[in-house]
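Posting for a labmate who doesn't have an account.
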Amino acid sequence: MVLNESSRKKLGEGEALEHGKVLEAAGVSVKAVPAYNVTVGSMNYHPKDRRDNGYVITVGNLRVYVAGDTEVIPEMADLGHIDIAFLPMNLPYTMTPDQVAAAARTIRPKILYPYHFGSTDTSHLTKLLEGGKGIEMRLRKLQ
C-alpha cells in the first residue's frame, strides 16, 4: 500500500512516499505528486502543508495520473505525458466541473475519468470538454 506519511501513521502500515519520490516493483513505477486545495473555504480539507499525495503510475509506456483529493494546482503542468487521468469532482472537497475541465486542459490526457463526483451534474463537464482537443471523457457510475 502506497500512501503519504500522515496516512501511514494513522494506519500503522504501508509505504509512505514524499512528493517526487518513486517506488518501483514488478515493472510498475509509482511517483508521489502533490494534492491540495487552493480555494478559500476549502483549504482546510486538504491543506498544502499536510503534503497529501496524488500518484503517477507508469507501466511500460502507459502513464496514469490519479490526482487524489485536490484542486487545479500549478504542479499539474509539470506531470509530463499522461495517457489516462483520474480527476476528483466533489464539492466542497475537490474540484468543480469547471476546475476539472481546466485541469484536463492542463494535463491533456488521452482519456479522462472523473471520479468522486457523487451527485454532481457531470453533463456540465461533458459540455465543457466537447471538442476537447483529443481528450476522451469516460464516466463510470460507482456507488
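Reply:
Got it, the C-alpha cells are right above this. Helices lie at 5-11, 97-107, 122-128.
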